[in-house]
Amino acid sequence: MTAKRARNIAFTAIVLIAALIWIFPLYWALTTSLRSENRIVSDGAGLLIDELNFSAYISVLSNSKLPIWYLNSVGTSLITTVIVLVTGMMCAYALSQLKFPGRRALYLLVVASFMVPVPALYVAQFVLMNDLGLVNTWWGIILPQLIVPVVVIVYKQFFDAIPKEMREAVLLDGGGEFTLLFKLYLPLNWGITAALAIITFISAWNNFFWPFLIATSEGMMTIPVGITQVNDSFGVAYARMMALALLAAAPVIIGYMIFQKRVTEAVMISAGVKG
Known about the structure:
Elements: H1 3-33, H2 37-40, H3 55-63, H4 66-97, H5 103-112, H6 122-131, H7 138-142, H8 149-161, H9 164-172, H10 177-188, H11 190-206, H12 209-214, H13 223-234, H14 238-258, H15 260-274
C-alpha cells in the first residue's frame, strides 16, 4: 500500500467518523421521538429504532402553537431575505458604479461593521423598537436583522468585475441606472443572488436571541423561541420535545437537501469575505 493511498484511507475514515458524530444527535432525537415516554426511561431502551409511536408528533401538533410559530418564522425570514437582498444589491451598485463624495468612506464603514458584535446592539435596538411601538410585532423582529454587510460586499465585488463597456452600451441606448441594475446586472448574478438568499433565510430562521427578546407572547414567537416554551407546557416529556425539535428543523434540513450546492456556495462566499 502506497503512502498516498494510506493517507486517502485515513482521511476517508476521519470524515466518516466526523459525519457519524454529527448525525448521531439527529438520529437519537428521531429514535426518542418515535418511542413512548415509558419506553424512553425503561432499561430496555437501546440505540436502534424499536418502536414507531407517532403520539408525540400528534400531541405537539395539536397541543402547541407550532403552526403559528411556523408562520411567524417563514413570514419574517422571507421578508427579511427579500429586503436584505434588494437593499444590499442597490447599496452595492451605488458603491460600485456611481461616483459621489464619501463613497470610499461609506464602503469602509460597511466593511468595519463586521467588527461590531451583534449582541452589543440589542439594548439600543430594543429601546428603538419600543419607542416605535414595534415590540411583539413582525416588524420588530425583522428590522434589526436587515443589517447584513456580507451581502453588500459580495454584490460590490461582483459589480466591480463587470466590464465597463457593458454599462456604457446600455447608457448609450438610453437605459438608466435601474435598467442597468435589474435588467443587466441582476440576470448576470442569479447564482450569487440565490446563494445569498439561502444563507440569509437560514440565518433569519435560526435567529434565537433577538426574537426571544422582542416577542412577548406565544402567538408572536418564531420556531427557535417556541421550542423553549414546550418544556414548560409538557413538563419533562422527552418524546414530545424531540418531536418538536425535529419538526422545527425539518424545513431547513429539507431546504439544504434540495439546495445543497447553493448552500455550499453561500457558505464559501461568506467565509471568503470574512476571511
